[in-house]
Amino acid sequence: MSSQKLVGISEIAELAGVTKQAVANWRHRFDHFPKPGQTLQAGPVWDAEVIADWLKAKDGYQTKVISFINLKGGVAKTTTSVAVAEILAKDFRKHVLFIDLDPQTNATINLIGEEEWGKRDKDGRTLAQLFKDKLRPDAKPVFNVEESIIRGVSTIDGGISRLDLLPSSIEFIDIQEKLPFVAMQGNYENNPQDILRRALAPVIDRYDFVIIDCPPSLGIVTKNGLRFSTHYVIPAIPDIVSTWGIFQIVSSIDAFSDSINRAPPIRPIGIVATKVQGNIDLHQRVLAQLREGRLFEGKETDLTQPPLFTASIAQNANTARGADADAGLNTFRKKYGPNYEPHLALTKEIIDRCNPAKN
Ligand SMILES: Nc1ncnc2c1ncn2[C@@H]1O[C@H](COP(=O)(O)OP(=O)(O)OP(=O)(O)O)[C@@H](O)[C@H]1O
Ligand SMILES: [Mg+2]
Fold first, then answer.
1. Which of the ligands is closest to the CA of residue 100?
2. Contacts of 338 (CB under 8 A, 6+ apart)
3. What is the 3-class SS of 119-158, one letter each residue?
4. Whose CA is nearest to atom 10 of ligand 1?
5. Each residue of 127-183: pLDDT tens digit?
6. Which of 79, 84, 329 gets mutated to test ligand 1 (max ligand atoms within 8 A of its CB)?
7. What's the pTM?
8. Domain 62-358 is found in CATH 3.40.50.300
9. Where in the chain is the domain with CATH 1.10.10?
10. Which CATH number fits domain 6-59: 3.40.630, 2.160.20, 1.25.10, 1.10.10?
11. Which residue among 59, 132, 338, 344 has its CA within the 20 to 30 Å range from the CA of 91?
């Protein structure tokens, strides 16, 4: 008689300490999820040892959630986060969810165009609806996470199959002000900083990467994103005003991470220099300072400057035009011009820096 022990989805969920939904998500996401040994009437079953080995190996494959953040506006947070998400999904074949947390909706419009966004905004299929529901705890919730995720977005190829989007709405501006009072409206289970994480819990395991485009503020909507971010990237133009706030971001996120007892803490994986102009002396000086990790010099702090990424993104008119979803820019070359390769190199560095084996 064989001593082989068989396990079904429920037992795998129990072994891994996750929900059955999470196991179903892994089967979808990981090509290397073991094939079932048999399919019984009750469902598929696996060899328990094969599953145990796979779970051990999977530790390095936890969903990486990366916020792109800088308190300074106009430093290419949106352009960089969209490009990285597109490249992760298309060139690196990762399953990616892009979350647009900015009421300016730039990333949403970049990825799906204005017309499609308008339709979704009208019938409550944007993230703003999730937060609006919390402001009306007595009414029936309208937001539905599955219906709000738009699959296969991007202008590249008319849509990249592994890239999904949770769109934003201008209504976020209003919500941002009201949200702190959620807990006062008899809705005590709703920590106003934890709304997004809870809503995404059933779907997050489907993705290798979640990329979050943050507004240029550390308000409650941004904190909803940071609440479940594993890492963050700071895009910055290498000049005085754009790098001035970097210490503030790093120290604020460090304090936030502590306040919610995050272990491991939300990790800054790097600063990416954007809109770099080779002919400006100041840019070269600031780049040298960042490269040598000297930005926090002279400050009374234990924090170290996040390392500069080797790849940097040059100022380029073609890249600026890439945000127009209706311009027919259906290849990386058309959308990013000569900045495609630097974005590709940056994405590779991001993958490497998120990989615990290499850190
Ligand atoms: N490499 C580049 N070269 C030239 N222009 C660029 C480049 N990257 C971004 N831009 C342009 O700079 C402007 C700001 O970029 P983007 O919207 O990505 O910044 P942001 O940090 O997301 O801004 P905000 O703080 O408003 O959200 C946009 O008009 C964009 O098209
Ligand atoms: Mg932006």
1. 2
2. 314, 316, 318
3. HHHHCCCCHHHHHHHHHCCCCCCCCCHHHHCECCCCCHHH
4. 320
5. 999 999 988 888 999 999 999 999 999 999 999 999 999 999 999 888 888 887 776
6. 79
7. 0.90
8. yes
9. 6-59
10. 1.10.10
11. 59
